[in-house]
Design goal:
single chain; 134 residues; alpha+beta; 3-stranded mixed sheet; 6 helices; elongated; CoA-Trfase_fam_III; CoA transferase; CoA-transferase_III_domain; CoA-Trfase_III_dom3_sf; CoA-transferase activity
């Protein structure tokens, strides 16, 4: 989980709603952004300890309720199964030199039509095939 506390109001809501520890607001180590940055290791450790006892779903619900910006980090398997990745055709099949078929990520910059016979992964040390457009 990435949390982006950008102002004092967000810090106060983080302490009260998300961490359920308003006493942190009276601690000199956390009294201002300058103090939190000066005590960065302590700040990060304190937040991690408080959130570490909660489920991911509970942390997300608290962050949303507190209106504190965050981003959830997905594991590789979650990324592969994410509905947006599925809906946008981010995966295609490629054939390894062994003949085995694997799923590969397509480029986010452009969509290249599947070549006749499908995508093939070149063997180690092989040279790229010449394009018929040359």
């Amino acid at each position: 989980m990435l949390i982006a506390v950008q102002n004092e109001g967000q810090w106060q809501r983080l302490c009260r709603v998300v961490l359920d520890d308003p006493a942190l607001l009276d601690d000199p180590a956390f009294a201002s952004n300058t103090a939190r940055v000066s005590h960065r290791e302590l700040t990060e450790r304190t937040v991690q300890e408080r959130l570490g006892v909660l489920s991911t779903e509970e942390v997300i619900a608290r962050l949303a309720k507190a209106d504190v910006p965050y981003a959830r980090l997905n594991q590789i398997g979650e990324v592969l199964r994410h509905p947006q990745a599925q809906a946008t055709g981010r995966w295609s099949e490629a054939t390894l030199p062994s003949g085995r078929s694997v799923r590969v990520v397509t480029s986010p910059l452009h969509r290249v039509p599947e070549p006749p016979g499908g995508r093939r992964v070149p063997a180690l040390g092989s040279t790229p095939a010449k394009s018929s457009k040359n």
